[in-house]
Amino acid sequence: MKEKVGSFGVCLALMVSLLVMACTSKNQKEGHKNDLADALSPYLQQHSDNPIRWNEWSDEVLEKATSSNKLLVISIGYASCHWCHVMEQETFMDTLVAKEMNRDFVSVKVDREERPDIDQVYSKAAVLLNGSTGWPLNIIALPDGRPLVAATYMPKDRWLVLLKKASDLYREQPEALRRQAQNIVEKIIDPNDFQLTNEAKEHTGESSAMLGYASVYPILEQQFDGQFGGVLEQQKFPRVALWGAVLDYAALTSNPNAQKMVEKTLFQMSTGGLYDHVGGGFSRYSTDAQWHIPHFEKMLYDNAQLLGLLSKTYKITQQPLLRDRALATFDWLREEMKGANGLYHCSLSAVSGQTEGLYYTWTWEELTALMSGEDRELFFSAFDITRDGNWQDGKNVLYRQYTDQELSEMYSLPENKVGKIIKSNLLRLHQRRKERKLPDVDTKQIASWNALLVQGLVEMSLAFDVEEAYTEAVSLANTVHKKLQQQDDGLQRLASEQDAAHGKAFLDDYANWIAALIQLYQASLDKKWLDMALATTKYVLAHFDDPGSPLFTYSESNDSTLYMSEVPVLDGDMTSSNSLMARNLFLVGTLFGNSKYIDRSKAMLDKVTSTGMGNIIQKASWWQLMALHSEDITEVALLGDKAQAWAVKLQRRYYPNTLFIGGEEENLPLLKHKKVTGKTMIYVCRNKTCKLPVDQLELAVRQLKEP
Known about the structure:
Elements: H1 8-18, H2 42-45, E1 54-56, H3 59-68, E2 71-77, H4 82-92, H5 95-104, E3 105-111, H6 116-130, E4 137-141, E5 147-151, H7 156-172, H8 174-189, H9 198-203, H10 217-221, H11 240-253, H12 256-271, E6 285-286, E7 294-295, E8 298-299, H13 300-317, H14 320-337, E9 347-348, E10 351-352, E11 355-356, E12 362-363, H15 364-370, H16 373-382, E13 395-396, H17 404-411, H18 415-433, E14 441-442, E15 445-446, H19 447-464, H20 467-484, E16 492-495, E17 502-504, H21 507-524, H22 527-543, H23 577-592, H24 595-609, H25 616-630, E18 634-639, H26 643-650, E19 658-663, E20 681-686, E21 689-690, H27 697-705
Parallel strand pairs: 1-3, 2-3, 18-19
Antiparallel strand pairs: 2-4, 4-5, 6-7, 8-9, 9-14, 10-11, 12-13, 15-16, 16-17, 18-20, 20-21
């Protein structure tokens, strides 16, 4: 059981849950604007008409809180967050709430996608205080930013109780609250409290860090949902980092059960309501364990990562469903998420017309009017359409209840006929849906999320032989480099169609950009991408060092106004930026023959795994990295005029822990003395030992299959 950090959080929680304040107040809309009107973030702009005097995060705001000796209210959210909008309308538009906050607090609004460094630090505080976190995330903190209490969504009466209790305590017992805040900070900084959950600690002991790569899989097996796929949890998230690691394990160890786990999970995601059967693309998460009902916002980072996972899995299974979902998601991304400047937007909101899911759901009457006869009956069976609705308020979410094969048997129709009926009706729904108002688009363009899409597009082009995807990947990478990378190789995090790039990038931006450049090199064998990866890696090493640790800080080392520097370790919605940088260091070090980079990667891995690997759900990318350091990496060098074309063909298959290098010049250490005039040669090498060079693809494939 976690140690309690004091009575303040408990006291506030009791006050909030037990007291109800009757308030006479009103909402204010007409003409009011606060300082957020000039913000670049669409999410912050949405709060510009609140009567609260919101500020953007800055040194000046912290100084203002300190000089006025007022507590901070730090409210964190994002544009596609449904409950963020609900709290904005119900609570932050209220004039009585505004009066209390403007009098006794300095209020700060934060877009978590624009400032993930702030979000990560205060999310840790929320986990410590409440056992979990979520958004909107509302923090009451000392003037210097040290947190006192964390709360998520609150209606105005409960929020007013919380505000009054906090301001009274700060006025009457300021020293007690300062001690409380320092106690919280010390617990947050202690890595042992956050690298392993209580559940994970039960699985780990003194010897667990030494068990090795293969021993981690049984821990994961215990947490797999064999019936519905995914992890055993009430709400299901894609967790792409986890399933990518499992896919690697399945391929490296020839474990069919591990492969089935990935296949089952992707099948459930791709046939459930998480996937938009009408327009393509995946929602952020499922609100139920069956993957039926999504939380309807669509995020660029989820879809970019899923493109990669669908593509890699297809290389092994050749399942048409995976190809279909990837291609439809690619089409959706270009249609609804691509900006005029060539970069991709952040997200689509869950809300349209003030109603969650309105854009994506259908009533019985709407669907009945669009279809007829036996086709309608079959379609309704396929997607579990009912008169009362399969969700709420008479609305139906499209999720597959039966496969085409099952419907073929039920209706005595050829399976291809069933597929045509479903496809034609989905096209009809797509046309009708275009008449609806599209949910709001958060038009921020984030470096790391666009870099993730480059990676997904490269994987897709290789798996499905889609030249259009590769062309888009190259175009997007060139745009990121032109618009977001500076002459000193540093990155800007944000862009938009209206504004110049702004905001210093964070570790996830750099890590994902380097990974994208390495992938582009392997697909193109164009060394310019690798040179860019090396230059960006050097920038990270120079600016993100964590003193006394092999790990990297999330913000540039000398650039944080927070009360602590975050060193991200665990996987979340995206792969841990430290584990990805460790992987990048290993690959860049291998490609350029730099043993210091490889040693740094190993030191990072040792640092994290020293506490055990029980928390595999959030350490999956480190497990994946273990394979690079414990198994022999394979290098496939191709030299000659056919090198690039052959490299692409070889990468139609899935070879984890394999680097493809080459071209027409011996321009890397691993390529020296391998060129043969007039021929294209392939060298398959493991553990610094090469097999006999071959000049036929089939022979290289055979060598890659050999142990």
